[in-house]
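User: New here, please read:
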Amino acid sequence: MFTKFRLRSCNLEEAISMTSKYETEPKGYTMTTVMQEAARCLLCEDAPCSKACPAHTNPAKFIRSVRFRNVKGAAETIRENNALGAICARVCPTERYCESACTRAKIDGPIDIGGIQRYVTDMERKENMQILHAGKENGMNVAIIGSGPAGLQAAATLRQKGYGVDIYEKNAKAGGYLTYGIPEYRLPEAIVDYEVQRIVNLGANIKYNVAVGKDITMDDLKAKYDAVIVAIGASAAKTIPMFEHNICTESAISFLARAKENKGKLDDLPDNVLVIGGGDVAMDVVTTLKKLGVTHVTDMVYEEFSEFKASKKELEGAQKEGVTIVDGYVPTDVRQNKVTFKHRKIDSEMTITADKIILAIGQKVDADGLNIDIQHNEIPFRKVRFHTKDPKVFATGDIVDGDKTVVYAVQKGKEVAEEIDRVLGGQDND
């Protein structure tokens, strides 16, 4: 007999409070405070922060513009290389990239580059600045499968170069994991909608609720378009065989999607939840659970703290919320709601009982019906990066080798668009 979840009851006031914690994004800079932060910048001649950005955004340049109160100029600098600048300002692990390279870090702490970028893109949205423009039509058309960050950036770059772009999205909304995964308090839905609309305004057409391989075939796309980009991301949840038929277990992807869709109003959360996994998605899960009022949240992680894959910022946020994180353990057995773990390096074993178990051990590619070769959760490129075995089909995003962060996906989307432009002989329209 399976163990039933113990549902936690709460009054209306508590429910409103929990929901607001989930939905409320931390306040950003004001004009006064952003100027104070920008004034800390040392205005380095050969700024290391700009060299460290995966998307090739130039923080030194847009911070300089902010110091001169030229917000539109700062927005133009950001958008020059990043069509999803407002999103990246919120979810990019800047401590790994630009802020780790900041010269100011050696004095008293790095410049809050992500925070300044958020201020600029928030002002861009508030003032309805029109930064990006489509190029002169060149008569060629490209299909993009998937509307995650790589697909959206590829669409923006291609439109700027004059290509017709149709995006095929299997869901009812664009954005992929940006829409269906990242919690509201980290990335408000309104911001994703804003970024998507900007790309639609460039002339990209999004065909919703169309699953390529089911509703339309790859052969149909190859016949209709000059090139096809596969940008489906890694959208399916990985699992561990022992948990597959466990009624107490849910995937991180499923949980986060439900929380986002219901704006944090979930009525099936017990008092005690066990999370397995140590990446950024796991941190999203445990922090969301605490914001939704779960009393006891324990996160068991394969990596030791020195090996953690999660953003330092997100890890610290989870710890501040009161999440118990235990490092260096792997699950060896599960019996309904009881999981036994063994330490990777020392002779230590523990059994944890929880009312609910959430697996956050990574994602895998679901490429059914696309007729593309997937090995080790990626496309094995034979020649030039982004090319598949079919000369008309390209791939980008998380199914391409390299970092799996949003900012890297943006760069890969830009690069695949540039490669298609090179192959098709199109011209860059300034």
User: Anything to note?
Assistant: The chain is about 35% helix and 15% strand. The radius of gyration is 22 Å.
